[in-house]
C-alpha cells in the first residue's frame, strides 16, 4: 500500500442519486410543465381561450422555469450557486443578520434539540505523520473498518485549531505548585521561575492547540429513553472502533458540554432573547462578536491524495476550525446508478463511433473511474459515503483575515486540495456547520472508504502526559509538549545526536526540570561539562583526581551486617591493581580485609585509619609480624600517595552524595582506563547503597557514553544497571554523539533496547544508515529527513515505542545561565527561542 491513493471522480453519480434529494429540481421542472399543460387544456375546453394566449400565460413561464432548472442541473450551476445568492446578498444586505440556533436541554450528557439528540465525544488522535509505512497502513485499515461500521450513522467531526492559553494546561501549573512541598527551597524557587516563564510564553501566543470532537446524531422517533439508548449504542460502537485505531477518547460531561455549545454559538431555548448579531458582513466574510470569519468548502480533490496533505493543512498555525459531515449511502442504490451510468456512457460512445466520430476521452475517463468504483463496492472492501468538509478562518481584524485567507488558499493549493470561499453564502454556511445543523447537500462529495480514511483529521496529537514536564513545542504544529520522559514502566533513556545538535542542552535543562518531580540526579561527567551547572544549581561536585580522590573504604556505612558486602566490594576493587590474579590471591585478600574490619569493630583501628593509606600501613604491619608477606602487597603499593595511582583513592574524606544533584567530574581520569573503571566501580556501589533504601527516584546520567561502552568493565556495569535499575526506582540516561557507538559487541545495542525513551537529535547520513542496521528504530521517511536536514539545535524526535514526537526543544531564559556549551550552540538555541 502506497502513501497515496487514487481519488475516483464519481460525483456525476452523486448528481443522479434521487434518494439524496439532488434531482428534485428536474422533477419540479417536469411538474410545472405538466401542470401548466393541464391548466391550459382546461381553460381551452371550458372558456374557449385561444391556444396562443394559453401558451403565452402558462406554458411559456413553465417551460422557461424548466429550462433554467435543467441548465443549473446539467451545466450552468453558477446560476443557482452565484447569481441567486448575490441577488439575495445585495437586496437584503442592510437587514439585521442573526445567528439563532437553540437546544432544549442536556439529558445525561446528551444534547436535546427540537428534532434530534446529540452526543459529543472529545477525541485524542495519534500523530500519524511520524509513523512508518507499515504502521500508517495498519492505522488506515482500522479507520476503514471504523467507516464501514457506520451503517446509517451520521457523524460530524469538528477540529478547532486555536492559540493555546495557560488555562488549557492549568493542571500542569497546579501539579508543580503542589510538588513544591516535597522539594528543597532551591528547587522550589526554580519551579516558581519555570512557571512564570512558561506563563509568559503562553501570553505571547507562542503555542497552538487542537481540539477534536466527534458528534453523533439521533433523530427523535420514539420516546426519549429509546432514542437516547439508540444514540448511546451508536456512540459506543464508534468509540470501540476509535480505540482500535489508537484514537483515545473522553465523553464530554454536562459541564463541558455547556462550554462546548456556548463556544459554537448555541443558545438554550429558554434564552430566546440571547441572539448573536452578525456585525460587519460581506460577500466572503462575517463578524460575530469581535471575531471576523470566512467559511470555505472543499470543492476540488486531486487525482491522488496523500496521507500528509490534511496533516500539513491542519498544522499551518492559523486559527481555524474544520467541520466534517459524513454519512453512508445505500450501497445497492449507488451500484445501480453506477451501472446505469456505465451503460449510458457505453451507448453514447458506441453511437459516436458508428457515426464516424471518435470516442470522447473525457467520457472514457469517467467510464473507467465509475467501473473501478463499482468493482471496489462489489468486492465489499469499499463503501460509498457522502462527505462535506468546511474550513472556517478566524481573525480579530478584517486586515488580518484577508492575510490569513491568502495564506490558507496558498497552503491548500500547494498541497493539492481545492478550497473555495462560499461567495454570498457565509451566513447560510455558518448555520450549516454548527453542530446542530446539516451541511448543504450541494457541497458534498461521493467518495469511497479509502479516500475518506486519507482525509480524516486523525493526524495531529496533543502531548500532555500526566506527571509530564514542559519540553518545548511540537515541531510541526507548535503545540506545547508536556512529556513524561520517565514512565512508570522504565526510567531508562538515551540521548543521541551529532555535535551541535543540542544533546548537552537537553540533558542539562532536563536535570533541573526532572528535579521538580523529585528525581535525584547523579552525573558521570568525563569531560567536566556539567560542573558549572551543578554548582549553579547548588549541587555537589565530586572531582576525582590525584589531588582529590575517593575513599573506597567509605562507600558503605560500616555495621556488622554490612561488613561482608563491603569486603566483597573491596576485594573486587583492589584486585584491579594486582597483576598476578588467581583464586588464592582473592582468598588471601579477603582474609586480610576480614581481619582489618574485625580490628576496626574491636576499636583497634580508628575512623581516621579507615582509608587506603591506613589499610596499606595495616597490611605491612601484620605481614611483618607474621613474616608471611603476600606477593600482591607490592602491587597495591602503587595506590599510595606519590606512586602511580596514588591520590585517586587516597582521600580520607567520604563522598557526600546527599545533594539533589551530584556530579562526578572524571576528566582527569581519562588518561588511564584502569583508574576510570575502578572509579566507576566504586561510584556504582555508592549508587547501589542509595538505591536499596528506595528513598529517592534516581537518574544516572552518563555523558560521552562511548568512553564507557569501549571499556569491557564499564560497559558491563552500564548494561547491568540498565537491566536492574527499574527494581530500585532508578533510571540510566546515556548521552553520546554517534549511533555507531551503540553496537551488539559492547552491549550498547541492548542498552538502547532496554530504554523506554530515546531522544534522537540531528543525525548524519551515516548515522541514519547505522540505525537501520541496528534494526531497533523504525523511522519513517519524514523522520529521517527531519533528522538529516534540521539546522536547529534541540530539534529532534522523542522515540517511545508507538509514540514518535517531533519536537523543538525550548530553553527558558532562566536556564541560559547553565545550559550552553559553546557560543555557536548558544546562538542557535537563542534563535529558536526568539523565533
Strands, helices and their partners?
Layout: E1 4-6, H1 11-14, H2 24-47, H3 51-74, H4 78-91, E2 98-99, E3 102-103, E4 105-107, E5 110-112, E6 116-124, H5 133-148, E7 155-163, H6 170-179, H7 185-203, E8 208-219, H8 224-245, E9 248-251, H9 254-263, E10 267-268, E11 276-282, E12 285-288, E13 291-300, E14 304-306, H10 308-314, E15 320-328, H11 331-354, H12 361-379, E16 384-395, H13 398-414, E17 418-421, H14 426-433, E18 445-448, H15 449-455, E19 469-474, E20 480-483, E21 493-496, H16 503-515, E22 519-525, H17 531-536, E23 540-543, H18 563-575, H19 583-601, H20 612-626, H21 633-636, E24 661-665, H22 673-693, E25 697-702, H23 705-709, H24 712-724, E26 730-736, H25 748-754, E27 757-760, H26 765-774, H27 781-789, E28 795-800, E29 803-809, H28 816-819, H29 823-834
Parallel strand pairs: 3-10, 21-26, 21-27, 22-24, 22-25, 23-24, 25-26
Antiparallel strand pairs: 1-14, 2-11, 4-5, 5-6, 6-8, 6-9, 7-8, 7-15, 11-12, 12-13, 13-16, 13-17, 15-16, 16-18, 19-20, 19-29, 27-28, 28-29
Helix pairs in contact: 2-3, 5-8, 5-15, 6-7, 11-12, 18-19, 24-25
Amino acid at each position: 500500500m502506497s502513501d497515496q491513493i487514487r481519488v475516483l471522480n464519481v460525483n456525476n453519480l452523486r448528481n443522479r442519486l434521487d434518494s439524496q434529494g439532488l434531482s428534485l429540481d428536474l422533477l419540479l421542472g417536469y411538474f410545472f410543465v405538466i401542470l401548466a399543460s393541464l391548466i391550459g387544456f382546461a381553460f381551452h375546453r371550458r372558456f374557449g381561450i385561444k391556444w396562443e394566449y394559453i401558451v403565452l400565460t402558462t406554458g411559456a413561464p413553465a417551460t422557461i422555469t424548466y429550462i433554467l432548472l435543467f441548465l443549473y442541473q446539467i451545466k450552468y450551476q453558477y446560476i443557482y450557486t452565484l447569481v441567486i445568492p448575490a441577488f439575495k446578498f445585495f437586496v437584503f444586505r442592510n437587514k439585521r443578520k442573526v445567528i439563532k440556533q437553540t437546544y432544549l436541554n442536556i439529558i445525561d450528557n446528551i444534547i436535546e434539540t427540537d428534532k434530534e439528540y446529540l452526543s459529543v465525544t472529545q477525541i485524542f488522535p495519534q500523530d500519524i505523520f511520524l509513523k512508518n509505512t507499515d504502521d500508517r497502513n495498519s492505522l488506515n485499515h482500522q479507520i476503514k473498518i471504523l467507516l464501514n461500521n457506520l451503517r446509517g450513522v451520521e457523524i460530524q467531526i469538528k477540529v478547532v485549531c486555536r492559540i493555546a492559553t495557560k488555562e488549557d494546561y492549568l493542571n500542569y501549573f497546579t501539579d508543580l505548585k503542589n510538588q513544591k512541598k516535597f522539594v528543597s527551597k532551591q528547587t522550589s524557587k526554580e519551579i516558581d521561575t519555570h512557571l512564570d516563564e512558561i506563563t509568559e510564553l503562553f501570553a505571547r501566543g507562542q503555542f497552538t492547540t487542537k481540539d477534536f470532537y466527534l458528534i453523533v446524531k439521533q433523530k427523535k422517533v420514539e420516546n426519549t429513553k429509546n432514542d437516547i439508548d439508540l444514540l448511546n449504542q451508536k456512540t459506543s460502537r464508534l468509540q470501540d472502533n476509535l480505540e482500535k485505531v489508537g484514537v483515545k477518547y473522553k465523553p464530554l460531561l454536562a459541564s463541558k458540554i455547556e462550554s462546548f455549545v456556548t463556544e459554537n454559538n448555541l443558545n438554550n431555548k429558554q434564552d430566546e432573547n440571547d441572539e448573536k448579531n452578525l456585525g460587519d458582513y460581506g460577500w466572503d466574510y462575517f463578524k460575530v462578536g469581535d471575531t471576523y470569519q470566512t467559511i470555505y468548502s472543499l470543492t476540488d480533490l486531486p487525482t491522488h491524495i496523500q496521507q500528509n496533505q490534511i496533516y500539513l493543512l491542519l498544522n499551518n498555525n492559523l486559527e481555524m476550525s474544520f467541520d466534517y459531515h459524513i454519512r453512508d449511502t445505500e450501497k445497492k442504490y449507488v451500484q445501480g446508478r453506477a451501472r446505469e451510468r456505465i451503460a449510458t456512457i457505453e451507448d453514447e460512445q458506441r453511437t459516436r463511433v458508428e457515426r464516424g466520430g471518435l470516442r470522447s476521452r473525457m467520457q472514457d475517463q469517467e467510464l473507467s473511474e465509475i467501473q473501478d468504483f463499482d468493482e471496489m463496492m462489489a468486492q465489499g472492501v469499499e463503501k460509498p459515503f457522502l462527505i462535506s468538509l468546511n474550513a472556517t478562518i478566524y481573525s480579530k481584524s478584517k486586515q488580518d483575515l484577508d492575510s490569513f485567507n491568502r495564506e490558507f488558499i496558498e497552503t491548500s493549493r500547494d498541497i493539492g486540495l481545492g478550497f473555495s470561499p462560499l461567495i454570498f453564502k457565509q451566513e447560510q454556511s455558518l448555520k450549516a456547520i454548527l453542530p446542530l445543523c446539516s451541511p448543504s447537500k450541494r457541497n458534498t462529495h461521493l467518495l469511497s472508504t479509502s479516500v475518506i480514511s486519507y482525509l480524516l483529521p486523525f493526524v495531529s496529537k496533543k502531548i500532555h502526559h500526566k506527571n509530564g514536564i514542559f519540553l518545548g513545542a511540537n515541531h510541526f504544529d507548535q503545540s506545547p509538549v508536556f512529556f513524561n520522559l520517565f514512565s512508570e514502566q522504565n526510567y531508562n533513556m538515551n540521548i543521541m545526536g551529532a555535535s551541535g545538535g543540542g544533546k548537552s542542552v537537553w540533558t542539562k535543562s532536563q536535570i533541573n526540570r526532572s528535579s521538580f518531580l523529585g528525581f535525584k540526579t547523579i552525573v558521570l561527567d568525563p569531560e567536566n561539562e556539567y560542573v558549572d551547572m551543578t554548582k549553579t544549581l547548588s549541587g555537589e561536585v565530586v572531582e576525582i583526581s590525584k589531588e582529590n580522590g575517593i575513599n573506597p573504604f567509605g562507600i558503605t556505612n560500616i555495621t556488622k551486617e554490612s561488613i561482608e558486602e563491603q569486603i566483597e566490594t573491596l576485594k573486587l576493587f583492589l584486585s584491579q591493581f594486582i597483576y598476578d590474579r588467581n583464586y588464592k590471591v582473592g582468598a588471601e585478600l579477603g582474609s586480610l580485609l576480614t581481619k582489618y574490619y574485625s580490628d576496626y569493630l574491636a576499636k583497634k583501628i580508628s575512623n581516621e585509619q579507615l582509608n587506603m593509606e591506613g589499610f596499606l600501613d595495616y597490611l605491612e604491619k601484620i605481614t611483618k609480624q607474621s613474616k608471611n608477606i603476600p606477593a600482591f602487597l607490592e602491587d597495591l603499593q602503587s595506590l599510595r600517595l606519590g606512586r602511580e595511582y596514588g591520590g585517586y583513592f587516597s582521600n580520607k574524606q567520604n563522598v557526600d552524595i546527599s545533594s539533589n544533584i551530584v556530579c562526578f567530574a572524571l576528566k582527569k581520569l581519562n588518561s588511564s582506563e584502569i583508574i576510570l573503571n575502578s572509579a566507576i566501580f566504586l561510584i556504582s556501589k555508592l549508587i547501589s547503597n542509595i538505591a536499596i533504601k528506595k528513598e529517592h527516584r534516581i537518574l544516572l546520567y552518563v555523558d560521552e557514553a562511548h568512553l564507557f561502552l569501549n571499556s569491557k568493565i564499564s560497559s558491563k556495569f552500564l548494561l547491568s544497571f540498565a537491566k536492574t535499575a527499574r527494581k530500585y526506582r532508578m533510571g540510566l540516561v546515556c548521552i553520546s554523539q554517534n549511533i555507531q557507538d551503540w553496537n551488539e559487541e559492547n552491549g550498547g545495542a541492548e542498552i538502547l533496547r532496554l530504554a523506554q525513551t530515546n531522544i534522537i537529535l540531528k543525525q548524519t547520513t551515516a548515522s541514519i544508515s547505522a540505525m537501520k542496521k541496528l534494526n531497533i528504530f523504525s523511522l519513517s521517511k519524514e523522520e529521517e529527513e527531519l533528522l538529516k536536514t534540521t539546522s536547529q539545535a534541540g530539534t529532534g524526535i522523542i522515540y517511545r515505542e508507538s509514540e514518535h514526537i517531533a519536537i523543538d526543544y525550548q530553553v527558558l531564559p532562566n536556564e541560559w545561565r547553565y545550559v550552553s556549551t559553546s557560543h555557536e550552540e548558544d546562538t542557535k538555541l537563542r534563535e529558536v527561542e526568539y523565533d
